[in-house]
């Protein structure tokens, strides 16, 4: 199924998503990679607040290349999501509605997705230049010293993703492999 969704969104919107759905996101998403996740996790451990409200928001695992003149951002392809797996369950439990990346997720992340009625989307790896065309604005909002790994607030329009793990725990990477083996 193909869907157009405005972000941020809540449990009501994720409940209708199914593994394998094509989704076009419009609205606000945030970026964070390894170093930013580590800092957020450490801030939580110290009882500090995070640089943005996780509630019903999405984090895109991406560190862009420099923007060309006249563009808000450079190439904006996804990074491997499993590198954030040790931090993701805690963030999901605090209200994060979903993540965008590439690659498999751990069983702990899958359980947290189901527990929180969240979603894991994949963006197409290797298509960073194409994905950047869906990004209208980019603003560093935290951890500027991390360079490309700083947390950014992005405004996107029709940003293309695929539901990999839906709120019921269905995992496209597993079902697609099983379907391929049956053929």
Automatic annotation (TrEMBL):
<comment type="similarity">
    <text>Belongs to the class-I fumarase family.</text>
</comment>
<keyword id="KW-0456">Lyase</keyword>
<dbReference type="Pfam" id="PF05683">
    <property type="entry name" value="Fumerase_C"/>
</dbReference>
<dbReference type="InterPro" id="IPR004647">
    <property type="entry name" value="Fe-S_hydro-lyase_TtdB-typ_cat"/>
</dbReference>
<dbReference type="InterPro" id="IPR036660">
    <property type="entry name" value="Fe-S_hydroAse_TtdB_cat_sf"/>
</dbReference>
<feature type="domain" description="Fe-S hydro-lyase tartrate dehydratase beta-type catalytic">
    <location>
        <begin position="11"/>
        <end position="175"/>
    </location>
</feature>
<protein>
    <submittedName>
        <fullName>Fe-S-containing hydro-lyase</fullName>
    </submittedName>
</protein>
């Amino acid at each position: 199924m193909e869907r157009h969704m405005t972000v941020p969104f809540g449990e009501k919107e994720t409940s209708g998503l199914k593994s394998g759905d094509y989704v076009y996101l419009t609205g606000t998403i945030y970026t964070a990679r390894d170093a930013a996740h580590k800092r957020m996790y450490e801030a939580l451990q110290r009882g500090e607040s995070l640089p943005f409200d996780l509630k019903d928001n999405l984090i895109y695992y991406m560190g862009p290349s420099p923007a060309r003149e006249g563009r808000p951002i450079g190439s904006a392809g996804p990074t491997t999501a499993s590198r954030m797996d040790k931090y993701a369950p805690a963030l999901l439990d605090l209200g994060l509605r979903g993540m965008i990346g590439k690659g498999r997720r751990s069983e702990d992340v899958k359980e947290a997705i189901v527990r929180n009625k969240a979603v894991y989307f994949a963006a197409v790896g290797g298509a960073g230049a194409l994905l950047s065309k869906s990004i209208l604005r980019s603003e560093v909002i935290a951890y500027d010293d991390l360079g490309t790994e700083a947390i950014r607030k992005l405004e996107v329009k029709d940003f293309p993703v695929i539901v990999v793990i839906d709120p019921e725990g269905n995992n496209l990477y597993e079902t697609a492999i099983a379907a391929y083996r049956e053929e």
